[in-house]
Amino acid sequence: MCNVEFRPWAKIVRGNPFMATITEKINGTNACIVIKEGEIVAVQSRKRFITPESDNFGFARWVKENEVELLSLEDGYHYGEWAGEGIQKNPLKLAGKHFFLFNTFRWNPDNPNKPDCCDVVPVLFNGKMNSSTVEGLLLKMIDDDTVEHEGVVVYYHNTRNYTKHTIKTPNGKWQKELTK
C-alpha cells in the first residue's frame, strides 16, 4: 500500500439546518479579549494583537481600564464588536464606546457572569427560519430611519456556521432587490 493519509468522509449533520439565531451586525471594529488561567493574556483586533500603545480605536486601553470586571468572562477567546463614537462613523449613534460580545448563547440575560461593562449583540430572531426571514429583518432595518443599520448575522445551530447579510453592497449602494 502506498504512503497515503487516510481522510474519512466528513460527518453529515442530522436535523434541521435552518434552526438559527439571527443577530444584528454591528458596524464597528472586530475585537477579542483572551483570558487564560484567570488572567488577560492578550487583546486583539481582527488582524493583530493590540496594546494600549498600539491600539485599535482605544479597545486595548478600555480592556486595561476594565480588567478586573472583564475577568468574570473567564478563560477563553471572547470575540465581539467594538463600536460607538469615533468608530466607523458610529451609524447606530451610540453614546461612548461599547464592546458587544458575539456569543449570545453564553452571554444571554440569564448569565450572571456577564460584566456590566459589556453588551451583547442584539438577538433579532431565534427559531426555525424560512426563505423570507432574513429579508424581512433587513426590510425592517431599512424602514428604521433613526439609525443606519448594517445588516444581520445568521448562526445556523446544527452546522455551527455563520453567514452575514448586509443592507448595502460593498460599494455603499442599497441592495436593489431589498428596496423594490
Task: Summarize, please.
The protein is an alpha+beta fold and 180 residues long. The protein has helices at 59-65, 67-70, 133-143, 176-179; strands at 19-25, 29-36, 39-45, 76-84, 97-101, 118-120, 123-128, 151-156, 161-166.
Please tell me about this protein's structure.
By secondary structure, the protein is α+β, with helices and mostly antiparallel strands. The chain has one domain: DNA ligase/mRNA capping enzyme (D-amino Acid Aminotransferase, Chain A, domain 1, 2-Layer Sandwich), CATH 3.30.470.30. The protein contains 4 helices and 9 strands, in the order βββααββββαββα. The chain has a 5-stranded mixed sheet, covered by helices on one side. The protein has a 4-stranded antiparallel sheet with strand order 7-1-8-9, covered by helices on one side. A hairpin with a 2-residue loop joins strand 2 and strand 3. The model has no long low-confidence stretch (mean pLDDT 89).
